[in-house]
Sequence to fold (904 residues):
Amino acid sequence: MEIEENPTESSAKPKPFALHGNERLFAFSDGVFAITITLLVLEIKIPEIPKELVATKLLSELSHLFPFIISHLVSFLVLGIFWVAHHNMFAHVKRHNHILLWLNILFLMCVASIPFPTGLLGTYPDQQISVIIYSGVLGITGLVLSLMWWYVATYRLVDDETDPEFVRFVYRHVLKAPIFYFSAILASFLSLPLAKLILACVTIFYIIPNTSVHKHYKKLDQRFNQ
Amino acid sequence: MEIEENPTESSAKPKPFALHGNERLFAFSDGVFAITITLLVLEIKIPEIPKELVATKLLSELSHLFPFIISHLVSFLVLGIFWVAHHNMFAHVKRHNHILLWLNILFLMCVASIPFPTGLLGTYPDQQISVIIYSGVLGITGLVLSLMWWYVATYRLVDDETDPEFVRFVYRHVLKAPIFYFSAILASFLSLPLAKLILACVTIFYIIPNTSVHKHYKKLDQRFNQ
Amino acid sequence: MEIEENPTESSAKPKPFALHGNERLFAFSDGVFAITITLLVLEIKIPEIPKELVATKLLSELSHLFPFIISHLVSFLVLGIFWVAHHNMFAHVKRHNHILLWLNILFLMCVASIPFPTGLLGTYPDQQISVIIYSGVLGITGLVLSLMWWYVATYRLVDDETDPEFVRFVYRHVLKAPIFYFSAILASFLSLPLAKLILACVTIFYIIPNTSVHKHYKKLDQRFNQ
Amino acid sequence: MEIEENPTESSAKPKPFALHGNERLFAFSDGVFAITITLLVLEIKIPEIPKELVATKLLSELSHLFPFIISHLVSFLVLGIFWVAHHNMFAHVKRHNHILLWLNILFLMCVASIPFPTGLLGTYPDQQISVIIYSGVLGITGLVLSLMWWYVATYRLVDDETDPEFVRFVYRHVLKAPIFYFSAILASFLSLPLAKLILACVTIFYIIPNTSVHKHYKKLDQRFNQ
Fold:
């Protein structure tokens, strides 16, 4: 596109013609998110029932699927949270470099891993190891996201206008997730239901913003409204 | 891209450099649609036949696949309808905020769920529960789409030039789908073939626009023709 | 993007702010192509061999996979041809409307169907029915592509500068594929190897452009070089 | 987009309206990469354990998965390397033509093939044939990438400002991969662990840039920082 947009200006200013900005980073990331989130739902398989039993068994087989469906829909929301976070964070990132590319790939590796612990928790919900692996993977994903923001803020890849207060807010906001998740691991040694309650709370916390967060989301929305 | 496009202007005007508009929302949504719609077709599996029976059995095995193929192609069209609706709707949405992002994720969750009831209806076409779940998921998808339009229109995220009459038309047009689908659920208690007839009619209704709809599509096309 | 690009111009000219052009059509199409073409290759499964036999059996099991791998790589090239054709064709399409959206969805339905006949031909290469279904699906895909070009050219959705001679060339060029494929179906009644030879020839014909085609590709390349 | 961006200029200058530049090539490539890299991770399946044995067996079954997980995460990084290489290379490619499109499709065919040898190596890590096929596919992928750069540099599709020294550096840098991979094949005849050590070294070499490479990455980053 850049090739064609201002062809007459090309001689005037030594503008790097072929350069793409962050779009490919976005396209690649959005692709990984879209595939992971979609395949998560596609994991829910239709029960196979012998022909003569279909009429009597189908309903009960479907109701057996219910906990599996719930765990996958919750993970859909968790992936949604990470996508929204990535989306909001990169609205402030004006450029990238080799290291940011690789931090992003590391983050996407975590994202693409989420279906595994999700399936584990959906299949073996009563095992502590399922809760530990699930919380661990999500916690590490959150840590890598925080690391990315730290890198971006420290090496001035953010938009110069970004408010330093906002930078600190994002830190605090993003770091809450791994803290929650790692405390869910600790809680799992005391009580599995308590650990699961923490997992549910993190999800709700990030989807329904509380008052302190609200102010910053407002500001972010205003950016998109300019 | 915005980074590079007008680098000289950066000091003149405090333009948010790193900001992406609706593109990531589009990229993510188009990704989920593309994966769901493609995997729907890929669900059609090649029959496995022992080597010595291939010559005699292959044709009949393939003809057994026929109803399964039909139900998947119909769902391909249904997903096509929802994509076209999303495409047309967002041609009028000039910005987004936290809540619209999440309504969209909710909508995509419904979209990604469609292969499950499709497979169910394709595998157990004679069970009322299949028809109910199929119509239910599609009905809810339509409801969430209507909710999105309501939110976008109410909170002025639409393009200011959008004709109020057009806004009302989209409401009425989009809301017809859930009404149809929920009446298919009611019909399924009377007669399964009737319920399926309703399902077929909704699909045709949205693909082949009738006269009242035509006028609005014309206008939409003109937007794209400017 | 359009939101941000020229924010100062917004009051001056009643420009439809939220409008996206053909990008979503491209994003959706490229997504379907990317998924179909990738999953085609991912269909090639690792042979499962009992532990004690791995050393002796692995090589021979892998060599059994060879015809299956070949048929999938050929289909990869065929999907490549259709993507290149879509890419080149839409370089001349300046706008779209409801009907073009649906013709494109129909085309993508054909594209997403290609792995099925490919797997069929790879699994049962000696059955006439495999050759017929494979040629039939590819032939219909080519027909729908021709239909799209006819629609686009007839209803003036092409770029006004497009040379009428070029329009006619694309017709002839694109229509050759279904003619070839349907003649492969006829040939399959005489001889399967002959039919397969025709299939191989179409693929080579479209990848390695001959002299008459070359001139037009040159012109197309020049467009991209401006 | 180009349709709408400068509608008033259309009469003044015979600009090809409908033309897209490299974006579709990028969208298609990023899609193939995103799907391949995501599905690689999704290959890691949850162990199926009978209900009564879950408590005692789950942990040991998960630990058995460990080598499989490692080989898939390494391939994730390898695909990341190729994506970063494609991303950096095409930052200098200002246009494309028929042949570049096809070289890119050939490259994507190699990329999409990587999960197969990865699974092979993960499933049968002690077989020489696994190491040979794995190194072979990655080596060919690197060769095709080098071929693409050679083509692009020779036929002047690169940005005119691209430093000839940089062009030569990319050659040398990209060609190192196939040389490493093919020497891993040779090494596999002497010692499998040695071959695997080479495979590990290539990966680290490309992710953590050494001093000589660093200078060029710096320059590339500066391009993105302009």
Notes: Confidence is low (pLDDT under 50) at residues 1-17 of chain D.
